[in-house]
Specification:
Chain lengths: 437, 354
């Protein structure tokens, strides 16, 4: 029997646009815009100033806070501006603009070669931290913190579900970066000191399942084909499906002895530990019905959406929405001038017939959202409480903060209610209230 | 002076340029998700109407022209009432989304075919204006509008509501069925209530003949409730489309079957569950009224409680009450406690399932 979780939805995959497109490396942009906040936690402070010359891989911003991840220059060139600039998930963010000098020179000492199996766990954690690695699935949690659980952990899980429609970046990596994935997984398991690993892949990617199974043959890593159902790549859903453990309300995966990393993160770990290369580029799926030639691109952090869209031939029709990430949980953008950051898994340009949501009407209590909710909530009630600003009742009686904002409820709602929007607003109202106290 | 106007002009030009720039890339920004399924309220409602079609068409052939008139009057007057209320209240017009049509159709199907059309129209008015729109419209009504209307007609015109057209006892369309038949006859549940089970069997000739008539729909009753097979056909379609859950009809009809079998006319376990399950408005009610999403609990568990409760009240009324049939009231009573059920029965949160 296929392993899964309760609830969930089956949106159209729409992966055909880019599924067979090998990863391409576009020409470097004339400048990059590197935001100081590309991770969960404290934003970094620039340690370079306007006029400085920087090289690829050089640390240009850092922070003293526990929860942070340093930021590196992704091209060589001159710092021409440090200012508030548009950001994909915040409105604006302090960013460093580097003008490309065309040399693409590495900072001294990179790349190098290390025998990773001779390194101590703590050494590896420090390398990962200094390389600025964060979760590449989109949540951008600093990886070195995840690799330092303060609880007993016995299982390492690699999230390769890629359940968001359109996105194929993880899939292409599994086919093209196979060896680096294998090394990255081994390194992560060594750091965590666990002997059992799982790789969860949705069964709509049989080719990747096959490649991964072959690559991990004879290891203690089990490659599991999971039923295609959104949000299979939700951390809690994935753990439930793979090892049948349920992360308690308000808890973390390590509370059930598990650490989860996105498959792209394992590639970044491998690059950092083996070659000393910090996180300065990532795979981005540029797709959607409004993109002329959808592609999977290896893009430097700080390239703008415009650079990526232009490389893909621009638009072939009016793009109603530009999305950073997937269509279910991604952020709609108001401009193409936002830069690609560490968590940008996709750039989608969708036409009006794809994103036309219809007019919102009152809840008819059909219960489809309740069926779809993977967290066992009553989304319809949360949306009604949201309309009435009853944030306390939502929190106390309807488990508001359990919501992972996966959007399954909104997807399935025949009344076209913007339930996630109400929930975000209710959460903000609660946080504002507790801040007041 | 001129320099100032130059500056202003420059500013105006700049603003204009900016506007054009913004125009150039005008993207919609909203909260996620950015894609939706292609279901809509009107799609659901028209599909429910479609599911009622087999039973509705059958009733026209079986009860004749008056059935058609009543259905058209019921549905159209419901839509007109909804349109007028929304127009008057300056609300968005949703009268044509199929839900008012459905309410009117359901109402006409759950009353006698011989009911004068103007009474049906008044019923539609009660359903839409009082039971639905005065509560805030679709989604806010507590009670099933069609059943509220039926109850209102029942207390207003009890005689007309319990006068049933005499049947021709055949499936063939005869000239008699195309005109209003003045001769009235009782429904099977009426016979059972007033004359007992033996008389009921006698009326149909044999047990088998009775079951056959109840299953096919060649019996007396409200015009849309008689054909078990065609109503179930519509119900199966709704199940297939995922618009209703099997738990509701199965639990409601099952409860009626089990209880009527236990509490039989001549002692425990002597009842005729098959008859009771097909009699009256149970099939229509269980598939089309107890599944009215607006007025029933939102969780599956809550819906099971609702369905079992409605089945129990139906049996209580049929066996002990003053009326021969209790489906309408049982559903209305369960509608009343639906908010309470929803408050008490919530899904178990992920992370608290143990």
């Amino acid at each position: 029997m296929l392993k899964s979780f309760l609830g969930g939805i089956h949106p159209k995959g729409s992966k055909a646009y880019t599924v067979d497109k090998a990863i391409e490396i576009p020409t470097l942009p004339s400048q990059v815009v590197i935001p100081m906040s590309q991770h969960i936690g404290a934003p970094c402070t620039p340690i370079v100033k306007v006029g400085d010359k920087v090289k690829k891989g050089q640390v240009i911003a850092n922070s003293e806070a526990f929860m942070h991840s340093p930021v590196h220059a992704s091209i060589s060139g001159d710092v021409i501006k440090i200012a508030e600039m548009p950001h994909a998930s915040k409105v604006n963010c302090l960013s460093i603009v580097i003008k490309n000098d065309g040399l693409d020179e590495w900072v001294e000492g990179i790349p190098l070669h290390r025998e990773w199996d001779k390194l101590e766990a703590q050494e590896i954690r420090d390398i990962v931290k200094d390389a600025g690695i964060v979760g590449l699935g989109g949540a951008t949690f600093p990886t070195h913190i995840k690799l330092s659980p303060n609880k007993e952990v016995d299982i390492f899980i690699v999230n390769a579900a890629e359940c968001e429609p359109y996105l194929t970046a993880d899939y292409r990596m599994m086919l093209e970066y196979t060896e680096r994935i294998v090394t990255g997984v081994k390194i992560a398991m060594k750091v965590l000191g666990v002997s059992k690993g799982f790789i969860g892949i949705e069964d709509n990617k049989p080719e990747a399942v096959k490649v991964m199974k072959e690559s991990f043959k004879g290891t203690s890593v089990e490659v599991v084909s999971l039923p295609t159902k959104y949000p299979q790549g939700g951390e809690k859903m994935l753990i439930k499906a793979l090892v049948n453990r349920e992360v308690p309300t308000g808890g973390l995966p390590m509370d059930v002895g598990v650490v989860v990393q996105n498959i792209g993160t394992t590639v970044a770990i491998c690059d950092a530990v083996v070659s000393g290369i910090p996180l300065i580029e990532r795979i981005v799926t540029v797709s959607g019905d409004a993109i002329k030639e959808p592609k999977n691109l290896l893009l430097r952090i700080g390239s703008t959406f415009k650079d990526a869209v232009d490389y893909c031939g621009g638009f072939n029709k009016i793009a109603e929405k530009i999305i950073s990430g997937g269509p279910m949980m991604g952020f709609a953008q108001f401009t193409l001038d936002v830069p690609i950051i560490k968590g940008t898994s996709g750039i989608l340009a969708l036409g009006s017939d794809v994103v036309n949501s219809g007019e919102e009407s009152p809840c008819i209590r059909c219960g489809r959202c309740v069926e779809a909710c993977p967290m066992g909530l009553v989304p319809s009630m949360l949306s009604i409480l949201g309309e009435r600003h009853k944030y306390q009742e939502a929190k106390e009686q309807y488990s508001l903060f359990n919501c992972i904002e996966c959007g399954s409820c909104v997807y399935t709602c025949p009344a076209k209610r913007n339930i996630v929007q109400y929930i975000k607003q209710l959460k903000a109202q609660n946080l504002a209230q507790s801040a007041k106290k | 002076m001129s320099s100032e106007s130059n500056v202003q002009e420059g500013k105006a030009q700049k603003i204009q340029a900016k506007e054009i720039e913004v125009q150039d890339e005008k993207f919609t920004v909203s909260a996620s998700p950015h894609i939706r399924c292609n279901e809509s309220i009107s799609k659901i409602m028209w599909n429910v109407n479609l599911a009622l079609a087999p039973a509705a068409i059958f009733s026209i052939f079986y009860f004749g022209f008056p059935a058609l008139i009543n259905m058209v009057v019921g549905a159209v007057s419901a839509v007109v009432c909804e349109y007028l209320v929304q127009k008057f209240r300056k609300k968005k017009i949703t009268a044509f989304d199929g839900s008012a049509f459905l309410t009117g159709l359901l109402l006409s199907m759950s009353v006698s075919p011989s009911l004068p059309p103007y009474m049906v129209a008044i019923g539609s008015f009660v359903a839409i204006v009082i039971a639905k729109q005065s509560m805030g419209g679709l989604g806010y009504n507590i009670f099933n509008p069609a059943h509220i209307a039926r109850a209102a007609l029942m207390v207003s015109w009890p005689v007309a509501m319990t006068t049933w057209t005499k049947l021709t006892n055949s499936f063939v369309i005869s000239s008699a069925t195309l005109s209003v038949d003045a001769v009235s006859g009782p429904t099977p549940l009426n016979i059972l209530k007033q004359q007992g089970y033996a008389k009921l069997i006698e009326t149909f000739g044999s047990n088998t003949a009775m079951y056959k008539a109840m299953f096919l729909g060649t019996r007396n009753g409200s015009m849309g409730e008689t054909s078990t097979i065609l109503l179930m056909l519509g119900g199966v379609y709704l199940l297939y489309r995922g618009y209703i859950k099997w738990q509701i009809p199965v639990c409601m009809i099952g409860t009626v079957g089990i209880l009527t079998w236990i509490f039989g006319p001549t002692g425990l376990f002597t009842g005729d569950p098959l008859f009771h399950m097909m009699a009256g408005g149970l099939i229509l009610g269980a598939f089309f009224m107890a599944t009215d999403m607006v007025t029933i609990p939102i969780t599956t568990k809550g819906q099971i409680i609702f369905a079992v409760g409605a089945g129990m009240i139906t049996v209580l009324i049929r066996l002990q009450g003053g009326y021969p049939e209790g489906v309408c009231y049982s559903i209305l009573l369960m509608n009343a406690i639906t908010p309470l059920i929803d408050r008490l029965v919530k899904p178990k949160n992920f992370g608290a399932r143990g």
